[in-house]
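Good morning C.,

I know you're traveling, so I'll keep this short. The sequence:
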Amino acid sequence: MKKNLFYFLLIILNIHSEIFAEPIFATIVFMKGKVNYIHNGETKSITRKTILEENDIIITEKGFLDIQIGPNSVFRINPGSKVKISGLAMTDNKQNINLNLEKGQLFSKVKNLPNGSKISVETPTLTGGVRGTEFAISGDSDQDLIDKKETLENGVYVTEGKVEVILKESSTKIEVPAGSEFVTSAKEQKARMLSDYNKEKMEILNHLKIMKESNFKLLEDQHKKNKSLMLKKKPWD
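The tokens, ready to paste straight into the viewer:
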């Protein structure tokens, strides 16, 4: 009886979360070159005014862009990358952000994330659960579209905080702390000290800036207002 009650309450809680979850606002902070995205099956060009939504797929080709997702996180999507926004929801001020890095690499800076929030990045070989503030994750890239001097080997790189890596093939968990890297092509499956060579590549994080929360809120409120007006607009207007 108690077991059945437990499962019933669990179902109710899940339904509550789904009903009251709100989409997290995701806006373009900076971009260079041509970048496309797939929205509802249609390929479109990204502009500085594009608002990205859950299930959108970003394809950078030779361009790149910076995206702010919520008030606390900014991501740089490098050239030769393909990223799907798999999760973009907020419930009770807890953010749930999930990015699927199908290929390429991304850098991220996270500040003052609310307790209980989750940010994860998946590649074909691993899942990185973010417990820190500055990191990069790299997967296979289109080699003809990227500058090899700026490319990180497949793996996870952390300058601040930590990232918990789960290898998909073996379910092995590996913690990558600040100042460390975990390269999936290495013979030893463990975190090691971040090399000076890769530290230089990680300097890109110095150029990632998170918007002031007040400015981000203004953009978010304006987007909600515009969306509301569009919904109210009559077909013949």
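Safe travels,
E.
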